[in-house]
């Protein structure tokens, strides 16, 4: 795709997913790397046409000493040049890291907390690209997932939008180079993540030897599968509400009319509503008792899913369960 | 999974997919390799319990001279030992290979032609495993696919059944070793296919470093996604029939009630029925004219899809199209 098309392509993505409405304020998350610099400039070039206000935010992770501060100064200069407001946060990732938290995971969590704290109903645009999406889909597949994992990174979720999600890193580098945009080495690209590094540096290059348009192929897959997933969730939600009884249980007779794949989704939703961790085996067991019309399962500590008098319900308290 | 479970696991697969009914005859396709030897023995151990008759077939591809003949003798001896009928075919793959046909693709085509010629309504069991399925899914993903490609190799299609599809190569080798089953190097494993070789020998080992249970993870994904795909196809077929008019066109008003992902499937089905090659862009264009309620597209040579008087139809003849 020629660089001049990045703007049009991003505009299409924004419109296709109804990301931005007239009068909205969009805060672009800018690390200073090529992806986020391109994001900021493309949004800047679209803001009058699409009628939104633009701001930026930057998170200093304080992980690379002077280099981190220099990235922050770079972003400050850029925003001053474009005359757009900038929100910054300084985060000591290493101090706030919790047990079992990878550096990348912790930084991600803190970044999104910061986004939430500044957004106040405004949109946050992140610079995730088709390359990130492809990696995420492959990681989900390898670790084990159902359809939802193949959807990859959502183009829009709540107030987070990802206008670059269907463009590749190559599109972005071309755009930066043709528009003489300077950028720093992406400071959010911490990638201490063993799995993501292996996928990015070893698996993806092999797959690109098979198909140089890998990212486009996976992007199309991700979009088409996301539509399928949304539709199936809609059908499942509707049936789940139809089955809900006055006493907030579920009519097993109605649940049993569902196709296998819909029933599995309904059970997954019931689990989520009751803080039961997602677990394919437990979901299958629960589908089993629904099909049988009776039984109870114990999907995790302090939770029982039980069928009584043709109604399914979750018991969340041990004592209460004993009394029943 | 301990070896003793292979039989139970295969029995579960057979029952879950209603592969075999009492009184059926199953012809196992046996190359002599570990996978197909395990398939033959597992089916042999299940035939009385499930009430089916067992036969075998073997294709000599004549690609490795004396080695090919020796494989055939090996299979003959095994079937004589088990006292089951054997159908054999001798195919000169190299002579019958067509332009643009890879050796593997050609051998595959000839093998399935042979299966069809001998089956006469009986079932053919092939020895595809979770490892084959994982490779196929990765290949489809990399080359570009929608949901259907993530379903992988179907467990059952027409009279072809694949009882080992959810077992791994490791399960099979363990079964062979614990049951002292001898086997030859799989003669169907031609693999001159550049893509499959790269996936099998380079990509899969890297992914297994990330998750040693890769094949199980992909198997579960394949099963769950196949259910989703089947359900969406059912919904699409039903709406397509509802939209079909007396003059064998499609009522655009009815088509437009469909969700995007269902409409895409309906268009794909209409394309297939009219010998229009699958092509995502053409499908999107067709969805576009349906949403617009008017227009025509030319998805391939000698085919036009057109909307007139709120009905969609395919014109398959150029002259006829001109006259319209």
From TrEMBL, chains A, B:
It catalyses: cytidine(34) in tRNA(Ile2) + L-lysine + ATP = lysidine(34) in tRNA(Ile2) + AMP + diphosphate + H(+). The keyword Repeat does not apply. Its EC number is 6.3.4.19. Keywords: ATP-binding, Cytoplasm, Ligase, Nucleotide-binding, tRNA processing. GO terms for molecular function: ATP binding; tRNA(Ile)-lysidine synthase activity. One of its GO terms (biological process) is tRNA modification. One of its GO terms (cellular component) is cytoplasm. Residues 26-202 form the tRNA(Ile)-lysidine/2-thiocytidine synthase N-terminal domain. ATP binds at residues 31-36. It is found in: Cytoplasm. CDD domains: TilS_N. Ligates lysine onto the cytidine present at position 34 of the AUA codon-specific tRNA(Ile) that contains the anticodon CAU, in an ATP-dependent manner. Cytidine is converted to lysidine, thus changing the amino acid specificity of the tRNA from methionine to isoleucine. The N-terminal region contains the highly conserved SGGXDS motif, predicted to be a P-loop motif involved in ATP binding. NCBIfam families: lysidine_TilS_N. Belongs to the tRNA(Ile)-lysidine synthase family. This is tRNA(Ile)-lysidine synthase. It comes from [Eubacterium] siraeum DSM 15702. The gene is tilS.
């Amino acid at each position: 795709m020629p660089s001049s098309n990045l703007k049009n392509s991003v505009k299409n993505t924004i419109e296709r997913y109804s990301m931005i409405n007239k009068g909205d304020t969009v805060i672009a998350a800018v690390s200073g790397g090529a992806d986020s610099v391109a994001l900021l400039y493309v949004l800047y070039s679209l803001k009058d046409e699409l009628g939104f206000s633009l701001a930026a935010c930057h998170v200093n992770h304080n992980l690379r000493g002077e280099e981190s501060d220099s990235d922050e100064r770079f972003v400050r200069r850029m925003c001053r040049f474009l005359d757009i407001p900038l929100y910054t946060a300084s985060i000591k990732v290493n101090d706030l890291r919790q047990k079992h938290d990878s550096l990348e995971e912790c930084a991600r969590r803190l970044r999104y907390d910061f986004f939430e704290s500044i957004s106040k109903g405004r949109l946050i645009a992140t610079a995730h690209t088709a390359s990130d999406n492809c990696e995420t889909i492959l990681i989900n597949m390898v670790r084990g997932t159902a359809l939802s994992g193949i959807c990859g990174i959502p183009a829009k979720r709540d107030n987070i939008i990802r206008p670059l999600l269907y463009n590749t890193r190559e599109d972005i580098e071309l755009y930066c180079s043709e528009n003489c945009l300077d950028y720093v080495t992406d400071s959010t690209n911490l990638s201490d993540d063993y799995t993501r590094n292996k996928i990015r540096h070893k698996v993806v290059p092999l797959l690109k030897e098979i198909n140089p348009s890998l990212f486009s192929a996976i992007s199309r897959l991700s979009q088409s599968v996301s539509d399928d997933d949304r539709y199936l969730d809609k059908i499942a939600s509707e049936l789940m509400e139809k089955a809900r009884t006055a006493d907030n249980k579920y009519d097993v007779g109605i649940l049993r009319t569902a196709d296998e794949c819909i029933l599995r989704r309904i059970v997954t939703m019931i689990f989520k509503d009751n803080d039961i961790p997602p677990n394919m085996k437990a979901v299958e067991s629960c589908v089993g008792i629904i099909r049988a019309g009776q039984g109870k399962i114990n999907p995790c500590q302090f939770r029982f899913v039980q069928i009584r008098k043709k109604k399914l319900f979750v018991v969340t308290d041990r004592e209460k369960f004993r009394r029943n």
